[in-house]
Amino acid sequence: MEYKQIEFKKITVDHLTCQSCNAKQHNVIGKLTYLYFFLESIPFVPVKKSINIVCNHCDSSFDVDSLSSSDYKIFSKKLFKLHALIPMYTGVIMVLLALSYWQYNSYQADSLSKEYIESPKVNDFYYINQKGINDEIPHNKKYVLGKVVSLTPNTVSLVFSRFLFENKSSLANDIRSSKVIGVKYFNKKHHVFTREKLLNFYQNETVLSVLRPKNSKLFGTLVLTSNLGINKQVKGYSENRIGLSFMLDADNKASLEDAERFFLESANQGYVQGQLNLARLYLDTNQTDKALAWSKIAALKGYDLAIEFYTQHCNSSEACDIAAFNAELIEAGF
Ligand SMILES: [Zn+2]
């Protein structure tokens, strides 16, 4: 931050008498000191006005303090006209504009986040502060990126990034650098929340913002890819894919029924992912026993996510016996 003084305006008057040569004509010069950053040519804000008076005949300076106060006022008014001063506030004006632009943008982002969380869609990205979910998360690992993977009329399932961050800005960096496309970027575990819970998370700033990709892009960077093309030959694979695509629209009851039908076909062909997705759908629609039965079938084939699912939800059913399940697992060789 530095200061610069410039000659702002000059007028000529002929009613003052030079204290040295008695000449009448004087130049009255308005000087302005302003504050600037970096560039002298862009004044930030004027800080001081001063007046110099010089005799036109002998160049000696006239003692400004001896001016009558009405003269001083008149000179000051003529030299420092308001409209001429406005450009001297360029820096302040630019900063105010930038602030209001930034505020407008963050206001817009906020209102979009709210809209998105009220009507979630698959592939929405969430900035999450895990402290709001689990108080024991260490401070330097509190931020996590979430992504919506499936929806039911009552619940939203998210996967969380494998990486945990100290700073919120790291989340955007991972998006900008396309890291989120990586097959292993997100953990496979589904975190299922009711829609109401998600709204609470937004209100208590556990969910900080929600981003919805447009044309698979966020911040101009590709963040979604289709992972079609693997294991297409496996029985039950394509039925499971179709089921998943119906889950994208699971808000719609008909789509949910279609998803169930395709997951069931996939599951009946022995495809473990199809069996687990069917189990998830049953769980989300409060058919816990069916959910446990199907996840158990996949679990006993050694599918780790199904084992986790069964273990996690066993206590929601009185009929479920975790010890017996563990014994069966061991017998099956896992
Ligand atoms: Zn003079």
Descriptive report:
- With 334 residues, the protein is an alpha+beta fold.
- It folds into 3 domains: 2-92, no CATH class; 119-222, no CATH class; 237-331.
- It has helices at residues 69-79, 82-85, 90-118, 169-176, 195-203, 237-247, 253-268, 272-284, 288-299, 304-313, 322-331; strands at residues 2-13, 26-36, 43-55, 61-62, 125-129, 143-151, 155-160, 191-194, 207-211, 217-218, 221-222.
- Strand 2 (26-36) and strand 3 form a beta hairpin.
- The longest helix has 29 residues, at 90-118.
- The model has no long low-confidence stretch (mean pLDDT 90).
- The structure holds zinc ion.
- Zinc ion binds next to loops.
Listing every helix as H and every strand as E from the N terminus to the C terminus, the arrangement reads EEEEHHHEEEHEHEEEHHHHHH
- Spatial separation of the terminal alpha carbons: 69 Å
Strand order of the largest sheet: 8-7-6-5-9
Strand content: 15-25%
* Associated small molecules: zinc ion
Mean pLDDT: 90
Radius of gyration: 36 Å
> Could you name the ranges where pLDDT drops below 50 across 5 or more consecutive residues?
none
Major sheet size, sense and barrel closure: 5 strands, antiparallel
Task: Label the overall shape.
Answer: rod-shaped
Count of DSSP helices?
11
- Percent helix, as a range, is 25-40%
Instruction: Report the structural category.
Output: alpha+beta
Question: How many strand segments?
Answer: 11
Domains counted in the coordinates: how many?
Answer: 3
